[in-house]
Amino acid sequence: MRDGVRDGDTVGPDPDAGPPSDRPADSAADSAAAAKAAAVIGAAGAGPAAGQSVRIDAWIWSVRLVKTRAVAAAACRGGHVRVNGERVKPAYGVRVGDEVRLRHEGRERVVVVKRVIRKRVGPPVAVECYVDNSPPPPPREAVAPAGIRDRGAGRPTKRDRRDMERLRGMEAGSSGPVKSSGPATGAGGPTGSAGASRRSSGRRSSES
Q1: R_g of the chain, CA atoms, integer Å
Q2: Is 145 a residue whose pLDDT tops 80?
Q3: Rounded to an integer, what distance in angstroms lies between the CA atom of residue 82 and that of residue 88?
Q4: Which of the two residues, 96 and 170, has the higher pLDDT score?
Q5: What is the pTM of this model?
Q6: Burial code of 94-124, b = ≥16 C-beta within 10 A, e = fewer?
Q7: Is 28 left (phi over 0), alpha (psi -120 to 50) or beta?
Q8: How far apart are CA 109 and CA 82, in angstroms?
Q9: What is the dihedral of CA 144, 147, 148, 149, to 10 degrees?
Q10: In this structure, are residues 72 and 58 in contact, taking their beta carbons and an 8 Å threshold?
Q11: How many Cα atoms within 13 Å fall on the side-chain side of residue 19?
């Protein structure tokens, strides 16, 4: 007998413990379920008081569709936010079941409201507040490159600005830099203060 096990006895896994390979999967599933439950509780805690509504600009900021509340309000005023197909103002009261369309930073977001909240929450909690029906973002190759200047290079010159506009596809005219014309000249010779002084000196010499 060795440590309570008699010679000839077969030592095997505990039949009540279940397959060892299932335990890590069960543990991961339990952790995911616990995280989701915590997110739901956090979303519920960020909701409004009974009988109070939530503005659309506050909601799209709270669920992290935009970075700041000011950006959310500006998007509403600019007509970039639609609720159920209609353009809305920042003070519009959002409700569960509304479809919210937001055009921001070159991408369209389409979400359906699941929870109405008025406080900004973390990403795990935010995704529990809506159903994301957004189309996939455009490929990186389709995004127009923006002009990037070295740090400490100072303000861009006019030529630099023209080059950056040409990169963004905003240049409407020529393909090369615009050259400034020289001082205007008339048929009789140069104009301006230099020409006037020469004409004046010529009259004085003829009078003498």
Answers
A1: 35
A2: no
A3: 6
A4: 96
A5: 0.52
A6: beeebebbbebeeeebebebebbbbeebeee
A7: alpha
A8: 10
A9: 180
A10: yes
A11: 4
